[in-house]
Amino acid sequence: MEIDELPSGTQDQKPDIDMNEIVGTHDILMLCFDTLRYDVSVAEEASGGTPVLNSCGNGWEKRHAPGNFTYPSHFAIFAGFLPSPAEPHMLRNRKWLFFPFQAGTGRIPPEGSYAFKEATFVQSLARAGYETICIGGVNFFSKRNDIGRVFPGYFNKSYWLPTFGCTDKNSAANQVDFAVDKLEKYPADRKVFMYINFSAISRLTRGRFVALGSRKIVPLCLCQRPDGQGKESQDSSWYGHKSLRKRIPVPDRIFRPIRVEKS
Question: Is the pTM of this model over 0.70?
Answer without folding.
Answer: yes
